[in-house]
């Protein structure tokens, strides 16, 4: 049965009897493609941020990923103090390694090194593509933040970060790559 109402979304759409037409969210779509407010400066801004993102990804490409942790040492940084003292990785251990794996397309190894690092690397690539889109077309993807509950967003992000840390520790303990040190008596 074809339902034709005054709603422009329902014109020519077949629905079973008793099913209401889809309703658009009262706050609008979650993501839209918007024109830049100033075409020249907006494109320059997009190119500048795209260059920064390209630089981050180029550095990740130039690094040789370690098995689990320590890729950051190739940048001249010291070893992780938390890992050195406890034998367990800190919450950010494996992030550089995950970026180095993602830019090589080795997503499973990136997720194994640090799940949140793999997600952040993919988000960085997506941001770079959004900058390229804005620079080339003069339009950019815009998220409707009115539809996102900031408290829930922060809690979910924190929970994901903690779960990624727990997964990094669990995988290291299971495969025996963590030099866990016991500092308590007994």
Beta-strand fraction estimate = 5-15%
Oligomer: single chain
The percent of residues in helical segments reads 40-55%
Measured between the Cα atoms of the first and last residue, the distance is 75 Å
Biggest beta sheet attributes: 2 strands, antiparallel
How many domains make up the coordinates?
A: 1
Please write out the topology.
Layout: E1 2-3, E2 13-14, E3 31-35, H1 39-62, H2 81-86, H3 95-102, H4 107-113, H5 115-137, E4 139-143, H6 150-175
Antiparallel strand pairs: 1-2, 3-4
Structure, explained:
The protein has six helices and four strands, in the order E-E-E-H-H-H-H-H-E-H. The protein has 186 residues and is mainly alpha-helical. It has one domain. Helix 3 packs antiparallel against helix 4 (107-113) and helix 3 (95-102) crosses helix 5 (115-137). Mean pLDDT is 86; it is low at 1-5.
Structure keywords:
mainly alpha, 186 residues
Q: Care to give the gist of this entry?
A:
The protein contains six helices and four strands, in the order E-E-E-H-H-H-H-H-E-H. With 186 residues, the chain is mainly α.
């Amino acid at each position: 049965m074809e339902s034709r109402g005054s709603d422009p979304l329902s014109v020519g759409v077949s629905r079973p009897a008793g099913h209401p037409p889809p309703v658009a969210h009262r706050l609008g779509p979650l993501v839209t493609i918007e024109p830049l407010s100033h075409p020249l400066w907006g494109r320059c801004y997009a190119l500048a941020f795209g260059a920064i993102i390209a630089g981050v990804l180029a550095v990740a490409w130039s690094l040789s990923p370690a098995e689990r942790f320590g890729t950051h040492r190739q940048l001249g940084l010291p070893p992780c103090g938390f890992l050195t003292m406890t034998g367990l990785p800190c919450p950010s251990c494996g992030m550089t390694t995950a970026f180095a794996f993602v830019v090589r397309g080795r997503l499973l190894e990136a997720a194994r090194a640090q799940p949140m690092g793999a997600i952040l690397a993919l988000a960085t690539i997506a941001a770079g593509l959004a900058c390229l889109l804005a620079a080339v077309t003069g339009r950019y993807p815009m998220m409707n933040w009115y539809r996102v509950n900031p408290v829930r967003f922060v809690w979910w992000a924190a929970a994901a970060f903690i779960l990624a840390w727990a997964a990094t520790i669990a995988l290291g303990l299971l495969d025996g790559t963590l030099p866990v040190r016991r500092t308590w008596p007994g």
